[in-house]
Each structure stands twice: as structure tokens, then as C-alpha cells.
Amino acid sequence: MANQNIIIALSKGRIFKDTLPLLAHVGIIPQDDPETTRKLILDTNHPHIKLLILRASDVPTYVQYGAADLGVAGKDVLMEHGGEGLFELLDLNIARCRLMVAGRPDAMLKAGRLRVATKYTHSAECYFAEQGRQIELIKLYGSMELAPLVDLADCIVDVVDTGNTLRANGLEPLLPIADISSRLIVNRAAQKLKHHVIADLVKQLDRYLQAGAPQ
Ligand code: PRT
Ligand code: MG
Fold first, then answer.
1. From the CA of 166, how far away is ligand 2's center (Å)?
2. What is the per-residue pLDDT across 150-209, written as a single tens digit (0 to 9) for each?
3. Do both 112 and 191 map to the same domain?
4. Does any ligand 1 atom lie closer than 6 A to the CB of residue 156?
5. 11 and 89 belong to one structural domain
6. Is 98 in the pocket of ligand 1 (CB under 6 A)?
7. Residue 160: CB within 6 Å of ligand 1?
8. pLDDT digits (tens, 9 = 90+) for 15-31
């Protein structure tokens, strides 16, 4: 397929798992499983195509700076990153979830400034500004569900899939902010210099997705 080098950045876990069938459809087979290998650069069956295994929130940065040509990242991560120097080529319709405000059922009734705990500080700031609601942001890096339980925050902004994690902690989804799915992203240089290979890849993936790729 490619005789130009193509580096694709993605994260292990749900994004890798859901991207595998899409890569397989375009004939790209990783030679290692990121859940078992310690390698961070995976070879594929194509000598010119490699996969970088990164923290999900680092994928846009590697693509933006050209360390990877392409990447697979959640829209939540892209909204936080700001998307500078990046183009979204395709909605891959994988790793779907919703970005939500969540908390105890009465959390929104609080008068005055809301304390909002989240790793999605940019999205939370934009959302509450649009709503005209004053907030105090508390930046966290994980386990956001804990914050309202110990009165660190009135509510959280996090992605929700089944809602089981919220429920298990006595919290509820309260307000939807955005529907989230993962996107195929590219940087300007790769888009120009590797146009033919990338356009061909996108065409094949798009056809597959339009035909209703099995989820
Ligand atoms: O885990 P790490 O801190 O390294 O990074 P990450 O959480 O950003 O990465 P990862 O691999 O967990 O998620 C990658 C992407 O998957 C996210 O950026 C989202 O776009 C997407 N995605 C889809 C999700 C979920 N569904 C999801 N459920 N990301 C995280 N979750 C979390 C959710 O926050 C909750 O705490 O999983 C937990 C369980 O969700 P429920 O609602 O099903 O209980
Ligand atoms: Mg995670």
C-alpha cells in the first residue's frame, strides 16, 4: 500500500480495540498487542506503517508536531486540545460516549458559584460560560466521580458511557454537553506530502463506515 512512511498515533484500551477492525479492513495488521508488549512503537505487516501507543490525551500533540502523521483521538480530547494544526478527516464512530455534567441529583440547585471538578477544564469553562453560570474550576486528572462525594466539588464534567460508574457512586448524569466519538486526525504537512496514501486510506475507511461497519 504505502511506500511512504506513515506513523499512526493511538491509545491502548478502548480506542486501540475499536480501531483494530478498521485497520484490518484497510489491510494494516499490528505485529504486537499493546496490552501485553512494552513497546511503544508497534510494527505492522507493512514495513512503512508504524503505530505509536500513547496516552489518549497526548495523541493530538504528537500529530500536531508531526511526530505522527495520523492519529485516532476522542472528540473530548480534541475539544480540550483546541485542534491547532490538526484536521479531522473522518468520524470513526467508535469509543462513543457523552460529555456530561454529573453530580448528586440536586447539584444544580445550588445558588451562586458552582465548584466543578474535571480534567476537561476548557470544555467545562466554555459550557458554563454559554449557560451564563459562574463556576470555580478544580482541575483533576482522574476519578472525577470522587470529588462530589467528599465535597471537593458540587459537580463534575466527565465522559459517560453506560452511566454505571456514576450510579455506583450515587451520582447522576445531569446535563449533556456533547456527543463524543473518535476521529481520524492528520497534520497539515502529512496531508500535503503524503496526500495520495492518506486520501486512499480515508476513501477505503469512509466506504467501510458508510456501509455500516460492525461496531
Ligand atoms: O485512562 P487515561 O487517563 O490514560 O486516559 P483516558 O481516560 O482519556 O483514555 P481511555 O482510553 O480511557 O479513553 C479514550 C477515549 O475513549 C476517551 O477520550 C473518550 O473519547 C472515549 N470513551 C468512551 C471513554 C468512555 N467511553 C468512558 N466510559 N473514555 C472514558 N470513559 C470512562 C468514564 O469517564 C467513566 O469513568 O470510563 C468510566 C466508565 O464509564 P461508564 O459510564 O460506562 O461507567
Ligand atoms: Mg481512562
1. 14
2. 999 999 999 999 999 999 999 999 999 999 999 999 999 999 999 999 999 999 999 999
3. no
4. no
5. yes
6. no
7. yes
8. 999 999 999 999 999 99
Q: Which of 177, 186, 156 is nearest to 76 (CA)?
A: 177
Q: Which domain holds residue 166?
A: 98-178
Q: Closest-lying ligand to the alpha carbon of 56? A: 1
Cell reading at 128 = 458554563
CA dihedral 71, 75, 80, 83 (to 10 degrees): 50
Q: Let me know whether 30 and 124 are in one domain.
A: no
Residue 87 forms beta bridges with which residues? 186
Identify whether the C-beta of residue 95 lies closer than 8 Å to the C-beta of residue 159.
no
85, 127: one domain: no
Domain-embedded: residue 1 = no
Q: Are residues 20 and 89 in the same domain?
A: yes
CB 179 near ligand 1, within 6 Å = no
